[in-house]
Protein 1
Amino acid sequence: MALLEVRDLDVRFAVRGGDLTALRGISFSLDKGERLGLVGESGAGKSVAAFSILNLIAKPGYIAGGQILFEGRDLAAMSERELRKIRGNRIAMIFQDPMMTLNPVLTIGTQMVEAILAHRKISKKEARAIALDRLQKVQIPSPGKRLDQYPHELSGGMRQRVIIAIALLLDPEIIVADEPTTALDVTIQAEIMDLLLDLCEQENVALMLITHDLGVVSQVTQRMLVMYSGRIIEQGPTREIINDAQHPYTQGLINALPQLGEPGARLFQIPGSMPSLKNVPTGCPFHPRCNFATEQCKHSMPDYVRSGNVDVACYEVANLIEQEKHMQEAES
Amino acid sequence: MTSPLVSIRGLEKRFDLSGSLLEQITFEGGRFRRKKEAVHAINGVDLEVQRGEALCVVGESGCGKSTIARTVMGLLSPSAGEIHYDGQRIDNLERKASLPYRRKMQMIFQNPYASLNPRMTIQQTLEEPIRFHHPDWSPIQVRDKIHEVMHSVGIDPDWGSRFGHEFSGGQRQRIAIARALAVDPEFIVADEPISALDVSIQAQVLNLLMDAQESRGLTYLFITHDLAVVEHFGTRVAVMYLGRVCELADTKTLFATPRHPYTQALLSAIPKLEDDRPNHIRLKGEVPTPVNLPSGCVFHGRCPYANERCRQEVPGLITTDGGNQVACHAVEEGRL
């Protein structure tokens, strides 16, 4: 059984003039110790997906359907009290901006001890020892001193290390990291990503990494999901998708990267931009920007088809697979 | 060699941190002392932008790349040093005398949500610079010009009566580019013009900037932290660290044979699609604050090759056999 299994998750936001559907039929699973990447552009619903795993969707958002099974128990149906035992304890979260996550008026030590005592009945002294140990694990210089410092005394990279230390405090099974390095500089970003990867491997923690950076995903994760307009359009092993993307959107996203283009030549560009949730196109949400769109794409939503180890939601890919099958049958 | 379009000579820029006189005075050891503190954003930068090229300035936050952009545009005045445009010194000009240069030099900012006036329609936004610089133009000429630039950036001229908030991020950046192009500039300073945009939109805007360069013969000073973009877009690259240029080279040369240890670390830190695992040069520590600059080479605290000379003496730019200009003692001495 997978550690975490999300089945047909629908998340909606109740606003004036009707509901907006932020997530439509999201299904994926995460095994113990596995690293999963969640890729998409702004508005694709990746953060909503991350937040809904911890059932952290705030009003007016709500989970309209589906299940989030963590070790077989449905988080979507749990009471707030039960959820609190899981949040921060079994499933930890790392957010994008370390300055927003840390309380500016409490010392690092106070915040870490508080998090431990919320879940475990141990003395403050023991909690402080755990906090110190985790700060050492994230390789912060002079960790003892940091416990008594305030967040503003640390640099951005160091704050993000503290956040990772806090996420590790209670030996979680899963870490959900929402753009953990986006606010950081390139060299610091590389160090933090290294650290996160090493720790997940050492402690056998599952990682769900939300990012818009395909380079990071390809270096860190084993499997990836590509989201577009609230839907997973492609999911499978990271290497396979990066090397041979099936969905036209994923292909476009990869080809739009300047590092793949011939220097000085025009970049591949996907026309238009992601639709807003208020007016999602009918059928496949990508069809207005897709070069392969047919009448069928405009009217009905494609189902997932399997190509290699990758699941893709695209009629064009489905047709290609059909054709291949016919060719093979004809040959034999 | 032809003369450069823009040349930056010995540029320095400090931002005073110490506040008013009363805030500067402290009582220490029985006597009053006056303490002054400043952020040393740029510490002696010489750069030349050749006609028709795209000179990229890269570096991490706090290295002074945006300060260079703003100083060149005259939005900040230099603490020391000179800015020359087409042979004429422009950083000390009177307001009136600087007007013709302001038309020739335009700027594109990072955040298209902040750089468009929310109370102006697109028409008004584009009209303002044209009317300001061409007061003698007839309304028809102005209108034609607006249509022309809107068309060239791929925004339907019929949308002129809409406001900025009705557009997406990518479209807003197109409008910001249209505003810069509206007065037919020769030189455009672009400060992180695509950093706030999504990947697929980044490609659109980058293509637009390259098209505009080709069709209008523009020269760019392009500020960015994204090295992949530089490799694609830049003619030459200047790598900055703590207010100094540590390496300057042709884009191809720099990416093929980076010489400065900082450039090497920076290039290795780009996450690449083909890698299965991160595989980069690890630097010690973090960028020091520009308030108290390290002595000697600004990079010595994090450099794996630093020796006593690096801690004492500031390295100057030297030209290597490969054509890179590098400010590094280790390269000069052949240790690296």
Protein 2
Amino acid sequence: MDRAEVDTKIRSLIEPFNKKGVTITEDTTFQNDLEFDSLTVMDFVAEIEDEFDIIISMNQQAEIENYGQLVDAVTKLQAD
Amino acid sequence: MSEGISQPDQPQAIEGEGKDLFSKFDDVIALREGLLSSGQEDPFNLVMEKVLSPTRAICNGRDTILLGTYNYMGMTFDPDVVEAGKQALADFGTGTTGSRVLNGTYQGHKEVEQALMDFYEMDHAMVFSTGYQANLGIISTIAGKGDYIVLDIDSHASIWDGCALGQAEVVPFKHNDIEAMEKRLKRIPEGAGKLVILEGVYSMLGDVAPLTEMVAVAKKYGAMVLVDEAHSMGFIGDNGRGVVEDAGVIDDVDFIIGTFSKSVGTVGGFCVSNHPKFEIMRLVCRPYVFTASLPPSVVATACTSIRKLMHGSNKRAHLWENSKALHKGLKDLGFKLGTEEPQSAIIAVIMPDLEQGAQMWEALIQGGLYVNLARPPATPANMTLLRCSLCAEHSEEEVGEILSIFEQAGKQVGII
């Protein structure tokens, strides 16, 4: 799956978690813009992990602050 | 002479004036001040002026029933236990002033480790200075960089800190969700070291883990299993060995972590294991090596208490009766509880929000009842809880008294 396809998939996965309907760009941050708390992060990450059959460990999550970084990380992880 | 030296200090305009390393705590400070400005008694600053028994104390000047301690088996005033401590103080002094691996191993430390091996029928026991350090030490030492830890999202802070210290890859799963745990284990790269961390009883809601299924799944994927039985030791299982015993999986788990600061009634932590190489931990586990060992009186009281807990089946039965009676009573009064059925000695009463939780806590303490107020971030799903933990020494009458204090407070605050 290339980056554009990963992006499309994640956009559909994030929808139910984007309660305030924030417009999502590459720079949208999970903590400040989307206001995800730790439980939301866990549920959202679990959705992505199941969809792409990957693990995003908490150590990796700590490096991911915005949407673009997430798409990059997932693109890389699912290609490995 | 340099001009610079004779010049007076000049006030500098610094960006972010008034900010320092403590600025990150401003939100917490504001939350706390807001709570206390309403005249609320501080739930996190209670002083017990006198402790009368395992179930009674004078708190802030009032005779109070204790329903928020971890003194599950009521061993803190057991005459044999107290006597053992006094004797050790007289014979061995107040402290060891050294590490277990240097001058800090006395006869008593070996004896308490033997008591643990006998209690659990396991080959090895290692005693730490606190339960927090037991988790910190064992987890960080066995799971290092490149290894994977799969753990429940509601794990205790000491478990998370152990994971962070060891730098393993940390993969949490939804609380008590067997399928979510299995999916994560399945995805771990082949050849990587795997550790699954579970708790017998989760202390916030007092619910138990489905260990029969979870341990089987962990073994299927070749993971080692560590179970924290801090809140079940002495109480759950025919011999008080914990949920692992009750679930029939004690022989399949690799490490049990426990504490002396709950049912045992003093302070300290431990790990028991049958792993043939376990003893090497004493040399490589930093939170074990680089701290002073427990005082002789503490290990003597722990040793005596653990040996008495082996024969505690009557107390265990009474504690179950208390747990069932309180759970039913609170449910009948209309309180919302953390579990449908009583699963441990902890009954969590769910509050609508922090404000009403704090009011309820205050109404209870003024009525002569102490419970734990638990709030985010320590709680799952950002709940505010009044955590009740029962003691085997609570009498049937006291449980009745507890219920009537709850009823009065609940009506006063308007929760029921």
Protein 3
Amino acid sequence: MKRRTFLGGAMAVAVVGQGSRALAQQSPIKIGMSMPQTGGLAGGGKASLLGIEIWRDDINAKGGLLGRKVELVVYDDKSSASETPAIYAKLVDVDKVDLLFAPYATVPTAPIMPFVKQRGLLLMGNFSFQVNSKVGHDMWFNNAPWGPADSWAASFLDLAQKAGGKSMALLTADQEFAQNLALTARDVAKKRNIPVVFDQSYPPNTVEFASIIRALKAAKPDIVYVASYPPDSAGILRAVNEIGIGDDVKIFGGGMVGLQFAAVMSNLGSLLNGVVNYNTWLPEPSMYFDGTKAFFDTYTKRAIEAKVDPLGYYLAPFGYAMGQMIDAAVGATKSLDQKGIAKYLRENEHKTIVGPIAFSADGERKETATLQAQFRGVKDKDIEQFRSSGRQVILFPDKLKTGNLISPFEAARK
Amino acid sequence: MFSMDLLLGAVVLGVLLGCFYAAVSVGLSVSFGLLDVPHVAHPAFLVLASYGVYQLNESYDIDPLVAGLAITPLFFLFGLLAYRVYYETFEKRGSDAGVRGIAFFFGIAFIIEVLIILQFGVDQRSVSATYIGKSWRFGEFRIPIRQLVAFAVALGLTVLLAVYLSKTFMGRAIRAVAQDEEALRLMGANPVRIKQFAFGIATAVLGIAGALLIIVAPIEPTLDRAYIGRTFCVVVMAGLGSISGTLIAAIILGVAETIVLTMFGASWAPAISFAMLLAVLAVRPQGLLGR
């Protein structure tokens, strides 16, 4: 009897063992990406990654995708365009990931576009600008709210012209993203007969902007469109504050990357007042959708231990939204077939925590949702002030608008 | 578009910028120029000092310059330790130590970058002081006060170091070890200890230079990479080991950069450092004030 009990027990253990082995053998779905975790784009990259990680944890808590856990395979691309081609080749050929997310920003993303097109792979874009315009890959979907290429510059110049702006200065970083912005700004200005009286690109690692701002001021523009990268945006604004920009300037800003990040905003404090700049998400009542508040509750807690942007408005919710779209597409197609997922993403509108997203044929948003907002009443050294509405008044798009432009720029700074 | 006002402004801002470049390069002029140590981690030490200044400013509201002065003794000790490790592991072991030493200092630079990221994260950091964000106005012309502060402190630091190396007993010993290490050994002096002390001095001045770095512009962990080219360019153009040459070379570089930025287009500015270096070396291979 004892022997029979022992045998029975042993068999039961063996059966249970087989079952759990079968569950364990159901491998996770791997999503591969590089992300800038060092270098100039690291601040954004880390916040974006945290948004994606929160989605991964949420989806795994709900049972994963197709009943399989989601695993992220992430490498640091050091904010460098030269690193990403090798990383993505490794993700596909060595790590054998199931799906690909792009790194944050244009510079590291641009070099991998030919690779994903050649291999016929789906790539979820992560805040790059116009990287697919020449490549024409039909399995590219950008999570950013940019929309049509010229809408960004057009919305800024709309505001500028309404304020009486007639001539434009263009100050641009020598980087892919900023140069693309400048290109569209020149095109829009040409169509509207706005003369460009100053047009300069500055190289990465420029230490001091005082001399550039002096030259810009001497050109006497009344619209100043700046397309800069995070390390430079702070230097430019500081120089503008010290050197002055002239009383003629009606509107200043447009495409300054960096002014969306808490550390930079906190450091610059009152220097931000009056600047009109693009943004993607702001804590205004019209910007809350299903799940937005819960996401930011989680993000705020995890951002402290992860030492990333404590606000996380600019990128993190869009990283989460990228996961939501994959969740919807994989759920609807019930497979990991990349062509099927791409077809679903192209043909449907997707509910996300940053609002509904629909794609046009080039994989960008059908309609722009990029905000132009003016900094108002910002005090020095206070991150918490940016959590309340009213610090960045939304001027565009009209359906989200929360105020009107204060112009000229010098008056708006007071 | 040419304008005399713009040109004059560019020259003034260039001199201020040049003095700042001198301050961040003068330590390298001692460690690389006089001691022949391939100190490619010099800009990483500089950024580390800036983070030290940031920490003191943020936590205790200490003025950045005072904070820079406060961390100087710590950086002196750090320099002594760094040289001792370099000497024991590389320099002592033979003539090809220089090549392997570059790997050592590159390694240290990367470790410093990672440690800064772990401790402070990747975001930009800056300090607050009454002289940051304001300017002095002369009619239509304005000069950022932070640039004037950097100019004055950098000038003082460079002159002080030049006087120390030429007038004091220890300073002359450092120059002697640079000229003929073997002769010093024959006279009963220990050249390794003198070099270690000199490396300590070269690292200590980074306390002040680091303060100037974060006063002039916000910092981030990988900022050292932006300064490797500039600092080595200044030191080589100056003539190895020449402190006054470092000041002159840095001012030439600063003025050339700002004139190009203002008058000809910002895209050309990075090329100017190395174009000027090549031009100077073509005429004077030993550098401006090198022997």
